[in-house]
Amino acid sequence: MAPAADPGVEPGVDPSFDPRTGEQHGSVPHTAPEQVAEILRRALGAAPRIAGTSPATREAWLAAVADALRAHEDELVQLAGEETGLGADRLRGELAKCAASTVFYGAVAAEGSYLGAGTEGIGGDSTLSRWNIPVGPVAVFGASNFPFGFGVIGHDVASALGAGCPVVVKAHPAHPRLSVRLAELVADALDRAGAPVGSYALVVGFDAGLQLVDAAEITAVAFTGSQGGGMALVERAAARGVPVFAEMGTVNPVFVTTDAAADSAGIAAGFVGSFTLGAGQFCTKPGLLFAPAGAGLFDAVRAQLGQVPRAPLLTAGIARGYRAGLAGLARAAEATGAEVTGAEASAAATDIPVEPTDGYAVDPRALLVRLEDLHPGSRLLEECFGPVALICEYADAAGALDALVRLQPSLVASVFTGGPGDPESVEVVARLLGQVGRVALNAWPTGVATSWSMQHGGPWPATSRSDATSVGAGALDRFVRPVAVQNADSAHLPAALHPDNPWRIPRRIDGRLTLPTA
Amino acid sequence: MAPAADPGVEPGVDPSFDPRTGEQHGSVPHTAPEQVAEILRRALGAAPRIAGTSPATREAWLAAVADALRAHEDELVQLAGEETGLGADRLRGELAKCAASTVFYGAVAAEGSYLGAGTEGIGGDSTLSRWNIPVGPVAVFGASNFPFGFGVIGHDVASALGAGCPVVVKAHPAHPRLSVRLAELVADALDRAGAPVGSYALVVGFDAGLQLVDAAEITAVAFTGSQGGGMALVERAAARGVPVFAEMGTVNPVFVTTDAAADSAGIAAGFVGSFTLGAGQFCTKPGLLFAPAGAGLFDAVRAQLGQVPRAPLLTAGIARGYRAGLAGLARAAEATGAEVTGAEASAAATDIPVEPTDGYAVDPRALLVRLEDLHPGSRLLEECFGPVALICEYADAAGALDALVRLQPSLVASVFTGGPGDPESVEVVARLLGQVGRVALNAWPTGVATSWSMQHGGPWPATSRSDATSVGAGALDRFVRPVAVQNADSAHLPAALHPDNPWRIPRRIDGRLTLPTA
């Protein structure tokens, strides 16, 4: 939560840098306090009007947003490339996924299960009816690493709108010009689709973000980013009881069983591809791989890494953080006898350039660590945002699993098995489920599907609320709360509970779950 | 959360007092730290074993607990009467409701919707499956005012066991002997029904409670009580990311429309009955009634109050708190020109006896306050636990409603209307729903049904988590979290997701909610 203290940064603006060169191309002014206050007033005014719309109406709004994003693909990918250096293919893919997920959240709203609607007799003439209402204006703090997936648009914004809440987004300083352009497109699409004034707005600047967290109008906060930033928001908002759904960085483990290790070359290739994807800037990056000793995983990874080109990180701050993190890991490695790939590894430990030489580009790295050095609090396990991962070659699978489940919980784990008959896989999956939100079997953790059964959120401190997900149908549940009305007649009930079920949604009537008739 | 600092209290025990006389009858020793640690170890050991049982198995355990409670009704009501002074009728009713709700939570578990089970294809050969797992050992901090409803037994314990979690209860010092006896019965019933060792245990003493909150084994906390106690637990547990579901005291409003006020005598009688029920020691007590001026509500309440006998409060501390609260209200009333019922009202403002003269008995009171003196932070609105309530006679319904929705949120509100055609009722209910968890129409808030659609939990600070309920089917949701497994074969899936649906539960298959076939 500390503002970037870069010397020479102009006050009152978010400057736009190209990570491929380190050059600045313009800037975006911060939103003034009185402008933020006006945005909040409009959001509060929009809240009951949005809450009064049908889910199908909001489904149409979200479809309009998706259409606008697709119609401006070339422009948006170009702009995102200039501010993130992530490459056109990755950015095109992310934008397409974002548009599809925006449509998906509309469909989840229209399906109506998220409304939790039900009614029953409770003795005598009394009845009790329950349904979920939108909580009100939601503040979204997006991530640096997914300019389309988690921020000005993406999972948090679309699921909050789908659930019937106005949204105010805080622009991430890693891509201010893209943020402003995206917000224009979203606001315009919503406006033309008929959404109320105040349904959506963007603010820019650190102080504007704090103003959101402290504002009485804001009833929930969604955040994607570092543990430091997430926990600062959680604590600040806790003072007035506002929930913060923070999805934070963790070291995600991979467990390779004895049977699976027969294909060590394939696993090494997949692992390198996954932990260097997007220059290692994924919250689902596999950060620590356990493989049986003797399978040569580390050597195979070392060979693969030599073929991975340098890639720019998103910001100068992230590049400095990566270099400092690598240096810390190298020092810890020296102390523990761990082995580090790459010629510059030990140099990195002693001499970190403050200013990058070729934009924010860095080399990927891997460390071979000993099982006995992996314990909660070990410096080896501090998350290092960027293309670095640890490998632990175990002699004994049971002992490795015991050590693994004592480490910090995480968002996701991958397990590689020899197939359905692998005797180790059942216990490994069962025990890892106690530590994570998702286990990917024979798949890398970096692919996150937007679907009904996705769980993107693990036990604290992977997220601030382990019962929440920021991807998938459950994402809407973060932005509603249940209310009950006793003895309501039809004038007091929402359409969700009208006797003729006009929204055609699943409902629980007198304790029995019922589906809409076809 | 401050320990009771009663002078003369024996260290190392919870003394048992009779509120009707103030006399001590024995005591119960505190649980030693090493005993608490052993209880936690056993709970952790039981967690995976309980998690591995079917919901129907746990339904049978809960039925056995309910049977044991019913079989010991006379003994339990006697013991509870000696420690709470709540009267045999009330206690018999509460015990019967507790037994019924214990059975209900078993039925909710067996119905299986709480499992949130679903599976779908996500492209290629990949699949994603999601279901809810129990979080692990739950600590329950019960309430003083519901010896059977919220504590050693009751909503939190039964819903946590139903969801598949071991439970460790902290005994409330208001009824230590009852707590020990209840815990014996529950533990014995669970044991005979086949629940694993460690499924359920009781600890006694303030320090034992802190040990639970700080214990790595405890994964969730349920609390019912004061705002001070609840928020202290929330903050303490937040340091390690453990959710605390705290249901805290608030001033619950009642709104009487112009049409409804025609029956002012009936409303006055109902109001007095509701706010003096259980000597006013209900979290759902109606604390502030708005009625149209000219209907004579305050005078009608004053007349009714004269017929309500003195009743003992639960503990010496609560009785002192009530007298101090009344004194504060009387001082605020003097400053604002409010009118107070009862001859001793102004005396109470100046002279509060530290030791009660006839047990912990107190008189009920009502205050007539002006609308303009009701604002957030007003001393008039500080919750006073006991048989006191405020009445505000409004000249203008719209203005009164505007003032009301600016006050602190609460658990529940009641609205009295002139019937379905009452022009005011729709707006009153709609606006109050933004402030509360439940609105009771033409019913008093103190009746809380245990059913599918109950919502017992309002916006902060009424509860720490406004999306949670501590009564009704949703109570189980507090004690589970979702997990997803990608590409699971049948060996990795719970019975909830086996293709033949052995538990016969609703599931979402490829995005479509499906019901078990009859």
Task: List the topology elements.
Two copies of one chain form a homodimer.
Chain A: E1 13-18, E2 23-29, H1 33-51, H2 55-71, H3 73-84, H4 88-111, E3 118-121, E4 127-134, E5 138-141, H5 155-163, E6 167-170, H6 176-193, E7 200-203, H7 206-214, E8 220-225, H8 227-238, E9 244-248, E10 252-256, H9 264-275, E11 286-292, H10 297-305, E12 311-312, H11 316-336, E13 339-340, H12 345-350, E14 361-362, E15 365-369, E16 388-394, H13 397-404, E17 410-416, H14 425-432, E18 436-441, E19 480-486, E20 507-509, E21 512-514
Parallel strand pairs in A: 3-20, 5-6, 5-8, 6-7, 8-9, 10-11, 10-17, 11-16, 15-16, 17-18
Antiparallel strand pairs in A: 1-2, 3-4, 4-19, 12-14, 13-15, 20-21
Written description of the protein model:
Two copies of one chain form a homodimer. Chain A folds into two domains: 228 residues, Aldehyde Dehydrogenase, Chain A, domain 1, CATH 3.40.605; 190 residues, Aldehyde Dehydrogenase, Chain A, domain 2. The termini of chain A are far apart. Chain A has a seven-stranded mixed sheet, sandwiched between helices. By secondary structure, chain A is of the alpha/beta class. The first copy, chain A, is 36% helix and 20% strand. In chain A, helix 8 links the parallel strand 8 and strand 9. The first copy, chain A, has 14 helices and 21 strands. The radius of gyration of chain A is 24 Å and the shape is globular. In chain A, helix 1 packs across helix 7. Chains A, B: Pfam families: Aldedh (PF00171). Chains A, B: InterPro entries: Ald_DH/histidinol_DH, Ald_DH_C, Ald_DH_N, Aldehyde_DH_dom, Aldehyde_DH_Superfamily. Chains A, B: Keywords: Oxidoreductase.
